Amino acid sequence: MPDAHNDGVRLAYEREGPDDAETVVFVEGLGYGRWMWRWQRRAVADDYDTILWDNRGTGESSEPEGPYTVEQMASDLAEVLDDAGVDSAHVVGASMGGMIAQQFALDDDRVASLTLMCTSPGGPEEVPTPETTVQRMYGEPGDMDEREAIRYKMAPALTDEFAEENEDLLSRIVDWRLDSDASDRARQWQGAAVEDFDVHDRLGEIQIPALVLHGTADRVVPIQNGELLAEGLPDAEFVSLEGGPHLIFVERRDEVNRLLTEFLEDV
């Protein structure tokens, strides 16, 4: 597997798709490994050169001392694209990954389009994560084993109905998370980056096509943040997924894949 380096930080990435095709790079959310994009990568890899990479502190990338900033992680993305020899890319980001994508679009002129899912521009008008969700995501009863703790913390990001009907898939997701997600301290360091992020007043500088997707039932990043993001971007299409949770790219993957591929075809 290739890797890039940013001031001593190793950044692992993988690549799939036609060598001569346009590039789509996927950026993960807080704590998540690159497994989270498996369905979207599969949907576009026949027609696009795809890049998946692990954020600093996650998976096969190194874990430098934190806390981190979104600006640092956007510069990590720049180094990944440099190492891959990419001079233009469609950037797809979710949650914290959507923040990194916004920052990268402000810092680098290689972004052909943005697809931003379940994310926020930050700033004073941001609607915060409900406290009940924060407590669930960052703490668990002391009698849980590691697998039970992951399920407990992930619950607000999915609908209860989906969890009840997809036990086998959730078990596989727990396996993937155990294998490649960020450590507890790296999650805290990435969380600090999310807390400090604010590009609300700079959204007008992002003069590229953007697709903003958000579930109406997102209990992690409330949908008002997606609306705020789409309102601030000069060339954005906003699509709300009725009843969709935070992990729309997992739970509503077929719908998300259709919207993503249609958007990429039209850009």
Sequence of secondary-structure elements:
EEEHEHEHEHHHHHEHEHH
* pLDDT < 50 stretches: none
Strand content: 15-25%
Tally of DSSP helical segments:
11
Please bin the fraction of helical residues. 40-55%
Order of adjacent strands in the largest pleated sheet = 1-2-4-3-5-6-7-8
| Biggest sheet details | 8 strands, mixed
Inertia-based shape = globular
| Class by SSE composition | alpha/beta
Compute the CA-based radius of gyration. Answer: 17 Å
Mean pLDDT: 96
Euclidean distance between termini CA atoms: 30 Å
DSSP E strands, number: 8
Describe, in short, the structure shown.
With 267 residues, this protein is α/β, with parallel strands linked by helices. It contains eleven helices and eight strands. Strand 1 and strand 2 form a beta hairpin.
Give a verbal description of the structure.
This protein is of the alpha/beta class and 267 residues long. It has helices at 38-44, 70-84, 96-107, 131-138, 146-154, 160-165, 167-180, 184-196, 223-232, 248-251, 253-266; strands at residues 3-6, 9-16, 23-27, 49-53, 89-94, 111-117, 210-215, 236-241. Strand 1 (3-6) and strand 2 form a beta hairpin. Helix 1 (38-44) packs across helix 11 and helix 5 packs across helix 7.
